[in-house]
Design brief:
Elements: H1 2-13, H2 19-34, H3 38-41, H4 43-48, H5 63-74, H6 77-90, H7 93-118, E1 120-122, E2 128-130, H8 132-139, H9 143-177, H10 181-196, H11 199-228, H12 233-244, H13 252-270, H14 277-283, H15 291-318, H16 331-342, H17 344-370, H18 381-400, H19 403-427, H20 429-444, E3 461-463, E4 466-468
Antiparallel strand pairs: 1-2, 3-4
Helix pairs in contact: 1-19, 2-7, 2-19, 5-11, 5-14, 5-15, 5-17, 6-13, 6-15, 6-16, 7-12, 7-13, 7-14, 7-15, 7-20, 8-9, 9-10, 9-17, 9-18, 9-19, 10-17, 10-18, 11-15, 11-17, 15-16, 16-17
């Protein structure tokens, strides 16, 4: 019965209905138009903000830590296993559509991250909390819709995503080292528990230390493999483009599969529009103190995740001389491809990379859902303890669940979150535009931009950039 319900919803969102594909394309085009293609015009400005991104108010999360936390959640199974799934089901052309949704998604990610920074609160522990549920409640004054999003978030980031990340790690470790899934699942759960019990600051510090190192390492290996197979690169690019538009033997059916799987896995990887990253954005105390700063920082995260890291995985798979069956394949396809390039060491490298990538996602996903406990009056010891226990139990379940079960549940949760979030951020477009104009008007005067809540329509009460409901 449960599988039937999940299957029916996914068929509407991702299957024949393809509702989310149209919605995501609309959102990306909408914000690209409304913000005058900000992701291309101000491309270099994203990087310039990194210079001051490590600064923050005392005992608060910096912009750089928020970026790393966002990348912790983004950079995971979607980059190594998700790309493999997209290629196995949609062919090499899926990578082109993954790029398209990432470029459009940069504008969407900018909008939702700006809103996450504008509408934030301070909890009892003195930590900032923000995200779609908060900007829906404070910006749109729709508490019922805020609760709807929070429920979808708990179903996704609170439970099914942690199970999916654990499933990928244990599968990779079984394939590389023949470690039973249950044993590795127990160890991963205990390690994750030791970090998440330290709270948001502990999670941000962990992300800041691990994410840059593992990202640079993975990109370096992909560059080496590309150089080793440089003569095959033109043919690979040609194959990606021809397959993307159904110009190979398989025809239009292949094009449809490429679009569907490319966009679906692209969204899962970079999460632009899904409403997850605004939680990281809302947790930051940025310098300069203007919401648009976080919009640019998190827009950079979309670029790094999909255009850089997902492309690295695609290059590794497509340049390998291996057979792609057309059946759904996950992390083992990436491991097989890496083995073709680096012999026996390849499978071990991917196992280590996916363990780190997915583990950081598990930790960040916990923080996203935990941010919404405040909406249910559960932001206390009992509420956090109950949520933490359920979260860790779902990780254990994911260790031994099947690939199809875990990905189907994750797809449904992500799809429902995205529907609610896109509706909200489109409604709040005037706020995003007003803040963006204000930010650049202040820069044009040669002053460091600061936030003034008079720029936007007020639905709640704001004091020093921290909001509370009426």
């Amino acid at each position: 019965m449960f599988e039937e319900v999940v299957g029916t919803i996914n068929a509407l969102l991702w299957g024949r209905g393809q509702l989310l594909i149209y919605i995501l394309l609309f959102a990306g085009i909408w914000f690209s138009f409304k913000l005058n293609v900000i992701q291309l015009r101000h491309f270099s400005h994203m990087f310039s903000l990194l210079k001051s991104s490590s600064k923050a108010e005392k005992d608060q999360v910096s912009s750089f830590q928020a970026l790393c936390t966002g990348l912790s959640a983004r950079v995971g199974t979607g980059n190594l296993a998700g790309v493999a799934v997209a290629i196995s089901l949609g062919g090499s052309g899926a990578i082109f559509w993954m790029w398209v949704i990432a470029i459009l998604g940069m504008a969407t990610g900018f909008a939702e991250s700006v809103l996450g920074q504008v509408y934030k609160i301070k909890n009892n522990q003195g930590e900032f909390r923000g995200g779609p549920a908060y900007y829906i409640q404070l910006g749109l004054n729709k508490p019922w819709l805020a609760v709807t999003f929070a429920v979808c978030l708990f179903l996704g980031y609170g439970f099914s995503f942690s199970a999916m990340q654990t499933n990928t790690i244990t599968d990779a470790l079984r394939f590389a080292f023949d470690i039973p899934e249950l044993y590795s699942g127990i160890v991963i759960t205990l390690l994750a528990g030791s970090i998440i019990l330290g709270g948001l600051k502990s999670i941000a510090r962990f992300a800041e230390q691990v994410v840059p190192v593992m990202g640079i390492l993975f990109v370096s290996v992909a560059v080496v493999i590309t150089l080793m197979n440089l003569n095959a690169v033109p043919a690979m690019i040609k194959e990606i483009l021809l397959s993307a538009f159904g110009l190979q033997e398989a025809g239009a059916g292949a094009m449809g599969a490429a679009i569907k799987n490319g966009i679906q896995r692209g969204l899962y990887s970079n999460e632009a529009g899904a409403g997850s990253v605004p939680h990281a954005s809302g947790s930051a105390s940025p310098v300069p103190n203007h919401p648009v700063t976080q919009g640019y920082i998190q827009m950079l995260g979309v670029f790094l995740d999909t255009i850089v890291l997902c492309s690295c995985t695609a290059v590794i798979i497509l340049l390998a001389d291996i057979n792609i069956s057309g059946e759904m394949e996950g992390i083992r396809l990436t491991q097989t491809a890496m083995t073709a390039h680096l012999a026996a060491g390849g499978v071990y490298f991917v196992a280590a990379a996916i363990t780190l990538f997915a583990f950081t996602s598990v930790v960040a996903n916990f923080a996203y859902a935990e941010s919404n406990l405040h909406l249910f009056k559960l932001d206390n010891k009992v509420g956090r303890g109950l949520y933490t226990s359920l979260y860790l139990l779902m990780m254990l379940w994911g260790a031994t669940a099947t690939l199809k079960e875990v990905w189907s549940l994750a797809d449904m949760a992500l799809g429902l979150m995205t529907l609610v979030n896109i509706f909200a951020i489109v409604q709040l477009t005037p706020t995003v535009i007003a803040l963006n104009k204000d930010y650049h008007a202040q820069r044009a005067k040669g002053v460091e931009p600061t936030f003034d809540d008079s720029v936007i329509r007020v639905q709640g009460k704001c004091t020093a950039g921290v909001w509370s409901s009426k």
